[in-house]
Amino acid sequence: MLPELAEPPRLRDRMGRTRDRLSGYLRGIRSRGAIGEEDWESIEAALLGADVGVATTTALLQDLRQRVRDGGLRDGDALMSALRQDLCDSLTSAGGAELQFVPGATNVWLFVGVNGVGKTTTIGKVARRQVEEGRSVLLAAGDTFRAAAAEQLGMWAARAEVDVVRGAEGGDPSAVVFDAVQRAAARGNDLVLADTAGRLHTKVNLVEELKKIRRVADRPPGTVTEVLLVLDATTGQNGLIQAQQFLQAVGVTGVVLTKLDGTAKGGIVVAIQRELGLPVKLVGIGEGADDLVPFDAEQFVDALFEDAPIAG
Ligand SMILES: Nc1nc2c(ncn2[C@@H]2O[C@H](COP(=O)(O)OP(=O)(O)OP(=O)(O)O)[C@@H](O)[C@H]2O)c(=O)[nH]1
Ligand SMILES: [Mg+2]
After folding, report:
1. Domain limits of the chain?
2. Is the CB of 285 under 6 A from ligand 1?
């Protein structure tokens, strides 16, 4: 039997660093009777400091300034509520956080992303949750670059009580994924979680390798229902540049943003969704097996601000 899953950790409890950074700038604005130029500067500095990004920050500020000019927002309290609402809206515009799964099929979820972002750890956490939800999971050790990668995945597999298909070190990763899909179909596993090596974006042939993995995984009986780009929140805006490279190589369906617990730059979530048009589906908030939660825009925005949630 799997050890009982702990209560899922709360975003709010793990996002203290980003919240502290924001509140350092925003403290006091809510109680302002009239909004002054220094308040706009504080909001801008807060959003940029949290890595919301220049384009998104500019758009948010333009909208808010216009509404203040039009008389729709009369004081600091109204302004802060509007900012929260705007953030929430921009976080839901790229689509929902639901993970796609076709019942009865051999679903494949591919995990891609550069070195060290947390792909293997995320697969371990996802495996556990999916087993808990009643799915029959098989792992594919598609990172054949280092033997240690398959071993690491094997440890997570043991924790989730699922099997892992491995290949030879230096072997063809798409062959491993192919084997995993065949085996899953033969044994009635309905979900294959495939790990990949992390240097794929750097060389053209490696990008080709990733495309090939995807093609092979999508061949019947397999069907690729998610391609999840894993990004490390602590790398901030650089993550967006990485994302572009992967977007061009494989059809990414969503983002897993890891290490939100270790950064003051949690605003990158907003930039990813607005600037890439990709939904953040899962967020990693620690190194433990339970430290992964589905992304929820409202909970996220609540976790960013020091004061009470938006009324109503
Ligand atoms: N604090 C924190 N650490 C995390 C999180 N997710 C992963 N890590 C840590 O990040 C490090 C790298 O994780 P891996 O899962 O090995 O990353 P990877 O993308 O598979 O790396 P490569 O296989 O080298 O490409 C490990 O020390 C993890 O424990 C998270 O959400 N929060
Ligand atoms: Mg790995």
Report:
1. 106-252
2. yes
CATH of the structural domain 106-252, one choice from 3.40.50.300, 1.10.3380.10, 2.170.270.10, 3.20.20.70:
3.40.50.300
Q: Which residue puts its alpha carbon closest to atom 7 of ligand 1?
A: 118
User: Does any ligand 1 atom lie closer than 6 A to the CB of residue 95?
Assistant: no
Ligand 2 centroid–CA 217 distance in Å is 19
Q: Per residue of the chain (312 residues), what is the pLDDT tens digit?
A: 566 666 777 888 999 999 998 988 998 898 889 999 999 999 999 999 999 999 999 999 999 999 999 999 999 999 999 999 999 998 987 788 899 999 999 999 999 998 899 999 999 999 999 999 999 999 999 998 888 999 999 999 999 999 999 998 888 999 999 999 999 999 999 999 999 988 755 566 777 888 999 999 999 999 999 999 999 999 988 888 878 878 878 889 999 999 999 999 999 999 998 888 899 999 999 999 999 999 999 999 999 988 644 444
Closest ligand to the CA of 141: 2
Ligand 1 centre distance from Cα of residue 176 (Å):
22
- What pTM, to 2 d.p., does this model score? 0.93
Nearest ligand to the C-alpha of residue 229?
A: 1
Other CB atoms within 10 Å distance of the CB of residue 158: 12
Rounded to whole angstroms, how far apart are CA atoms 1 and 75?
56
Residue 3 CB neighbours (<10 A): 10
d(CA 8, CA 155): 21
Relative to beta strand 191-194, strand 137-140 is parallel
Query: From the alpha carbon of 197, which atom of ligand 1 is closest?
Result: 25
